[in-house]
Amino acid sequence: MLYLVATPIGNLGDLTHRAQEVLAQVDWIACEDTRKTSILLKHYQITKPMIAFNSFNEAKVLPKLLEHLTSGENLALVTDAGTPGISDPGYSLVHAAIERDLEFTALPGASASIMALTLSGLPAHSFTFRGFPPNRAGARRHFLQADAGSAYTLVYYESPYRLAAFLRDALEVFGDRQASVSNDLTKKFEKIYRGSLTELNQLFAGEPIRGEYVVCIAGLDVKAIKKPAD
Question: In the chain, at which end, N or C, are there fewer CB atoms within 10 A of the end residue's CB?
Answer without folding.
Answer: C
